[in-house]
User: Fold this.
Amino acid sequence: MALLITGAAGYIGSHVLKLVLEKSSKDVTVIDNFSTGTKERLETLQKIRNFNVINADLSEGKIIQDVLKDYNIDEIIHFAASIVVPESVENPLKYYSNNTANTIGLVRASIEAGVKKFIFSSTAAVYGEPKQVPVSESTPLEPINPYGMSKLMSERVIRDASLAHKDFKHVILRYFNVAGAAMDGSIGQSFPNATHLIKVAAQTALGKRQVLSIYGDDYPTKDGTCVRDYIHVEDLASAHLKSLEYLDSNESDTFNVGYGRGFSVLEVLEAMDRVAGFKIPRKMAPRRAGDPAILISDVNKIKSLMPWKPQYEDLDKICASALAWERKIK
Ligand SMILES: NC(=O)c1ccc[n+]([C@@H]2O[C@H](COP(=O)([O-])OP(=O)(O)OC[C@H]3O[C@@H](n4cnc5c(N)ncnc54)[C@H](O)[C@@H]3O)[C@@H](O)[C@H]2O)c1
Assistant:
């Protein structure tokens, strides 16, 4: 088995790469253009065991074709993408190019090269502002920004390609709010301007940011702040390995990945206060456009069809791992 991971120098991709290196004997090749990913993460992971690193952009079709052929790739996990929602509103074509067009190119090259399994990083953003929670996979798909739409279009491309090419099977994973860092402290989320709440709370706890803004306290939720389904990055990572196994005896499918329960912004801050040992500076700020009040996944499908067993379903553990990682980096 030879596995290609695109975007493995990034936050989520590196945690999946780590697990693959630890838990399997697959030959692994990584493609990344290091636009947001870091070489340091890959250097850290090379200590587990060796893998191939190709510094290339997914738009470089000939390089992609050569990599698939030269390394006999038969499985792909595709993370490489642009992921900042406000940027996608300002610069939609960047998102349709990097996320959708590059996925089309990768899928085309995969089919030509005889790739059998394709795991795709999708997002709860494909649901937009759902009218009902928890959100199941059959909830209407109505993204409200170009990022979500670029991912939904990619999903459609992958699905139609599998319908036309029976040997090309896929699993689409729609992630909810990914957070935390590797429990052994080796890797974590490094993007300094990240907007993810738990990352920002950890940075604020360490004085890297002066104060954390809470965007809106008048939502129809238990305490007025937005509620999200936070999943530890290592539990999300293990869902990717289970997805590859799933395709050994099942057809292509789409799954939500979260824990199926939600915490408000204030509850997250209380958890970070507990693990930091003091109250993190915070201030109220106006709502941001396009933030649904509550986003919680219905995870019955993945739990009933895959032997996926989350291990870190504990908000304090998630916050503690994020804080420990934040202490370690500059
Ligand atoms: N972080 C989240 O909370 C979240 C939630 C839902 C879905 N996702 C999805 O998970 C995936 C990974 O997200 P992340 O948080 O790890 O982001 P990230 O920015 O840390 O990682 C993306 C990686 O892809 C690389 N990359 C980007 N464009 C590339 C290109 N054209 N060619 C080669 N490499 C390229 C970057 O250098 C980086 O290493 C994305 O597809 C994202 O849409 C993330």
About this structure: Residues 2-178+230-257 form a domain with the Rossmann fold fold (CATH 3.40.50.720). The mean pLDDT is 97. The two ends are 38 Å apart (CA to CA). The pocket of nicotinamide-adenine-dinucleotide is lined by residues 7, 9-13, 31-37, 57-59, 79-81, 83, 98, 102, 121, 123, 175, 177-178, 191, 196 (CB under 6 Å).
